[in-house]
Design goal:
Beta-lactamase; alpha+beta; 12 helices; six-stranded antiparallel sheet; three-stranded antiparallel sheet; globular
């Protein structure tokens, strides 16, 4: 097995953990109040920067970007290197692949179409998908839109390791979402729809096809017009090329021989609607605030999104949105994680503190402990502060 294959196998496991959230512990929803646009007091800023600087060093992580938005202040910062290969410094505002955090955008698009009476969450998917595709999907005439959203459809995932390895070896040739989708469908069904929970990117690829048909415009256009623009996300876009334009955090991962593999310059078209968005910490917090404050969809639609399904209660997964407990800091986290080789996004709302935090790490040294080390240190500090 090659070094690249070993990296990919471990990273896919980490990505699944990041995307699946924490142990569930649902608390009453608190609405985000007024946001503090001013920077934190100097003492707080220095303490947070010290935590970020020291913890990424302890974890062996090259670099990080973070934004924390509390009712009193906003802290946007960075630490370490955007690229451990070139030594470029990480800077606040750098872009990065948000990976599976993209799923929340796809879910919001579906909720908005439901509000517009263009579809229902309980529609069978054969109402919206081409007949020839439905014929290939086991239980394709009984699976509902809702079951795609909460990963209870019984549709298997694609083989992400094989796709990434193929693209890494041929970076100029994209693997299409159709090819990725067919991989998962060919391994289905895992169980009858609605009887169990299995996290599968293929569910969200299928949702983009439903958006195409129900909205009458491509998923990419609908999400841009109805989410990115109204939320003020000027540095966010769906990636359709094999590099991230402008200053960005590289997606790099260290191998056993100490060298770094760079996954930044690959196509992510295979992950349509499941992991194809590039954003910044500030834009992701803008999105989170707009979502929770009812500016993108109604608060009743959002309440439907954040309620975990019965089948996924252990994971706390709702409709593209999760509720979990960070046991180390004893704080509730609501949001979604995203893992891509060498790029890990943690996107959370802390209801006990009415605070938003988005963190991107450009390498986790193939260990979930390293992710927890940085995040938990920041959470522990916030827990003790009067925010």
């Amino acid at each position: 097995m090659s070094d690249i294959q070993r990296i990919l196998i471990v990273l896919i496991v980490i990505a699944a953990i990041v995307s699946s959230g924490c142990t569930q512990s649902v608390t009453p929803q608190q609405q985000a109040g007024g946001r503090g646009a001013s920077p934190p007091p100097e003492e707080t800023r220095a303490a947070l920067q010290h935590i970020l600087d020291t913890k990424i060093q302890e974890a062996g992580i090259p670099g990080a970007v973070v934004e924390i938005v509390t009712p009193k202040w906003t802290w946007n910062s960075a630490a370490g290197n955007a690229s451990p290969i070139t030594g470029e410094k990480a800077q606040p505002g750098m872009r990065f692949l948000i990976a599976s955090t993209s799923k929340t955008f796809t879910s919001v698009a579906i909720q908005k179409l439901a509000e517009e009476k263009k579809l229902s969450l309980d529609d069978p998917i054969d109402r919206w998908l081409p007949a020839d595709l439905v014929e290939k999907i086991p239980n394709g005439k009984t699976i509902t839109v809702r079951q795609l959203l909460d990963h209870t459809s019984g549709i298997a995932d694609y083989n992400e390791i094989s796709i990434l390895l193929r693209e890494y070896q041929n970076p100029g040739i994209p693997v299409t979402y159709q090819a990725a989708m067919e991989q998962g469908i060919s391994k289905s069904p895992l169980y009858p729809p609605g009887t169990n929970y299995t996290y599968s990117n293929v569910n969200y690829i299928l949702l983009t096809l439903i958006i195409d048909n129900a909205a009458g415009v491509p998923y990419e256009d609908y999400v841009t017009r109805n989410i990115f623009v109204p939320a003020g996300m000027n540095d966010t876009f769906i990636l359709d090329i094999n590099h991230i334009p402008g200053p960005h955090m590289t997606a790099t991962q260290r191998g056993e021989n100490g060298t770094y593999a760079d996954f930044s310059n690959l196509y992510v078209q295979f992950d349509r609607g499941a992991g194809d968005i590039v954003s910044t910490t500030a834009d992701l917090n803008r999105f989170h605030r707009a979502l929770r404050e009812g500016k993108l969809i109604s608060k009743s639609s959002f309440a439907t999104m954040e309620k975990p399904s019965i089948q996924s209660r252990e994971q706390g997964y709702g409709l593209g949105y999760m509720t979990g407990l960070n046991a180390d800091a004893n704080l509730t986290l609501q949001g979604h994680g995203g893992g891509y080789p060498g790029s890990f996004t943690l996107w959370d709302y802390l209801p006990e503190k009415d605070t938003y935090i988005t963190l991107n790490l450009n390498s986790a040294d193939m260990s979930t402990d390293n992710l927890r080390l940085v995040r938990t240190a920041l959470l522990a500090y916030l827990k003790e502060k009067d925010l």
